[in-house]
Structure formats: structure tokens, C-alpha cells
Amino acid sequence: MPNATTSRTLCLALAASTLLGTVMQAQGGSGQQDTPYVATRLIWRWRGIMNTILEDSRAFAPEGVTDDMEVFVSPGAVRAVQDKLNQTDLKKADAVVERFAYAVVANASRQDDGSRIVSEDAVQAAAKTTCPVYPFCD
Q1: pLDDT tens-digit map of 54-74
Q2: Is 102 domain-assigned?
Q3: Does the pTM exceed 0.90?
């Protein structure tokens, strides 16, 4: 029987696969086969921004929580690819990801040693304070 982390990871993978399939279909299927890869690269880019902020803030997020953070940015990556955002607009999106990550840290539980533990509640609170904002949430 799979544990909660395995189930969450499988759900995230299924959601990402569905989103990327939607992008391929919207882009005309086989004519834009690189579209899912572009969205995946954006997710990696934004994951790097979020991880750097967590590390610099001495914030720890369990795998399931980082999955939740990725769920926030994934639709934005798909939408950015669908809308063919230019580099200027992608830099604006990067700034939104930074704002979201700092909000996650701000909502994380502070420990006696000054570090922080990020919970699902912190991610949800950060999403509420960040949204609505294009391309992540309307």
C-alpha cells in the first residue's frame, strides 16, 4: 500500500502530465512537440528560485510540501508557454515566484534555532496572499 508521500507524488505527476498534454493539444499536437519540454524547463527554473529562497532563509520543506509549491507554479508554466511569454514577461513571472516563496517562508513555523519548517498551510497562505496574479492564478 503506497504511503502519503508516494500518493502525493503520483498525483503531482498525473497533474503535470495532464497539464502538459493539454498544452500539446492546444498547440496542435505533434507540430509543437517541444512545448511540454519548455513548460518543464520553466518549472525547473522556478523550482530553483524557490529552493534558493528556502535555503537562504534556512527553511525546510518536506517533499510533500515542495510538491504543493510546484503545484502552484505548474499551471503558470503551461500558461506562459501557451501565451508565448517573452523574456521580459518571464522575468516578471520570476518575480512573482520569488514573492510567493518569500510568503511561504513568512508563513512557516519559526524554530528555536531560527530555522523554519514549511507546512502545507504555509503554502496555501502564501498562494492566497500572492493571487490573483498572471500567469499563475486569476
Answers
A1: 999 999 999 999 999 999 999
A2: yes
A3: no
